[in-house]
UniProtKB/TrEMBL annotation, chain A:
<protein>
    <recommendedName>
        <fullName>Alpha-D-ribose 1-methylphosphonate 5-phosphate C-P lyase</fullName>
        <ecNumber>4.7.1.1</ecNumber>
    </recommendedName>
</protein>
<keyword id="KW-0949">S-adenosyl-L-methionine</keyword>
<dbReference type="GO" id="GO:0051539">
    <property type="term" value="F:4 iron, 4 sulfur cluster binding"/>
</dbReference>
<comment type="similarity">
    <text>Belongs to the PhnJ family.</text>
</comment>
<keyword id="KW-0004">4Fe-4S</keyword>
<dbReference type="Pfam" id="PF06007">
    <property type="entry name" value="PhnJ"/>
</dbReference>
<comment type="function">
    <text>Catalyzes the breakage of the C-P bond in alpha-D-ribose 1-methylphosphonate 5-phosphate (PRPn) forming alpha-D-ribose.</text>
</comment>
<keyword id="KW-0456">Lyase</keyword>
<dbReference type="GO" id="GO:0098848">
    <property type="term" value="F:alpha-D-ribose 1-methylphosphonate 5-phosphate C-P-lyase activity"/>
</dbReference>
From TrEMBL, chain B:
<dbReference type="GO" id="GO:0016887">
    <property type="term" value="F:ATP hydrolysis activity"/>
</dbReference>
<dbReference type="InterPro" id="IPR027417">
    <property type="entry name" value="P-loop_NTPase"/>
</dbReference>
<dbReference type="InterPro" id="IPR017871">
    <property type="entry name" value="ABC_transporter-like_CS"/>
</dbReference>
<dbReference type="GO" id="GO:0019700">
    <property type="term" value="P:organic phosphonate catabolic process"/>
</dbReference>
<comment type="similarity">
    <text>Belongs to the ABC transporter superfamily.</text>
</comment>
<dbReference type="InterPro" id="IPR003593">
    <property type="entry name" value="AAA+_ATPase"/>
</dbReference>
<keyword id="KW-0547">Nucleotide-binding</keyword>
<dbReference type="GO" id="GO:0005524">
    <property type="term" value="F:ATP binding"/>
</dbReference>
<dbReference type="InterPro" id="IPR012700">
    <property type="entry name" value="PhnK"/>
</dbReference>
Amino acid sequence: MSAQPISSMPRSSMPDITYNFAYLDEQTKRMIRRAILKAIAVPGYQVPFAAREMPMPYGWGTGGVQVTAAVLGPQDVLKVIDQGADDTTNAVAIRGFFEKTARVATTTATAEATVIQTRHRIPETALNENQILVYQVPIPEPLRFLEPRETETRQLHALAEYGLMHVKLYEDIARHGHIATTYAYPVEVAGRYVMDPSPIPKFDNPKMDDCPALQLFGAGREKRIYAIPPHTRVRSLDFEDHPFKVQHFAKPCALCAATGVYLDEVILDDKGGRMFVCSDTDYCNTRQAQGHVGELGVPAEDAA
Amino acid sequence: MSEQPLLIAEGLGKNYGARLGCRDVSLEVYPGEVLAVVGESGSGKSTLLGLLSTELVPTAGRVSYRLRDGRMADLSTLSAAERRLLMRTDWGLIRQNPADGLRMAVSAGGNVGERLMAVGWRHYGQIRDEALDWLAKVEIAGDRIDDDPRAFSGGMRQRLQIARNLVTRPRLVFMDEPTGGLDVSVQARLLDLIRGLVSEMGLAVIIVTHDLAVARLLSHRLVVMRQGRVIETGLTDQVLDDPREPYTQLLVSSVLAA
């Protein structure tokens, strides 16, 4: 068949596909909502659920997509971010998926969104009580690489035996002189369960504590859902003489001069040139529009 | 030695399907006492150790243990949480193969510190000091603290396993052939070390071994097993020097200058 634009193909050969709202059928969404309710009732506990095959590969956010589909309503405004950016492949694909299957409004502005699906970041703009943050989780079990037996890790969670988690941090200090874990940094939720916060930088860990928004975590391949209800105590594990610390950046964002935000390194040339810019693109763009200019930035009116 | 036993086993038995593991074993261990269980391969020694340390579930009989508060508790009635707490504070378990008892990918310091962290130590400096202290006690140089046990010799691994178990100052230690697979000179030093620690800490020890020399060096009392049953018990010297049962006589006479 010759390369013919899809829109000009005869209508008869392309049957209209109508999806159920947000792709999943209602029974599946009920099943996922039940798991979510249980996860909210037991903060930090990994609730098994019957994850479905989704029209995307594992590792691309199948867990997050199912959780989003289950909580999404027609009035919701969806934002999808990947490594803080709204315009990367994963974010664009998932946003397009829900535009097509749920016909919900989408946005890139954190403040306007009611449901935010995220991979690897928590937005810089503080969340509010009308928002739900959905995380994509590759490996939900924080003890996985210390104790490979799933039966044993369940026992450890059930009996709250978390000494092993500190063995990992001990090893970090013994080898590197400080706690070298920088992402997926283990947290204790509501004084009980130790939880993997998904691979967000530890910079974002303090944002989970006492957060007014509901935080849901979906792991599609591992078939687990867990949650942090609003205003829950989330504590990053540490030692008394090696307290938890977040990353610090020497210079502000090169484009918007923001400080106290998480920055990505961007290589500029093959002579060692580099700049550090906000990983949260929405936050950076908003600041640039407000007239903030970093050392490599272009003033907003000149760019236009 | 106080008069009240630390651990009592009554009519202990274990079947693996139709096969017999051990049958009708009763024994008592007192605080500070070293009890050796000897017998040839397949006589039910390791099964007995598994039953006593709650790793196996008995088909008959029961094991009771005196908790730190002086209460005598039937181990099968303890909750899983209580049993595990007992395992990592009040008990130690030294396995024949150190790779089974150690975390091979974790540094020596982490191996020793794991129990401390499990009982709530959260100060890195203190954990490290305690680990160094224990490595010195088991004759491992302090500068090996950040090496993982894969870089250690067999004897060092076994000593590390001992440090890892004794760091919470347990009252009862189970040892399953602790000198198995080590060469003779290393065995002798390890036995010296164990004997020193046992008397210094007042440990009660149940040691399973097929090596009568080990039993003679370490233990106060001896239990001889054959085909899953206890056939003779008594003071170590008494049993070894003046064995009563024909099988024990055979066992003793088959050892070169035991």
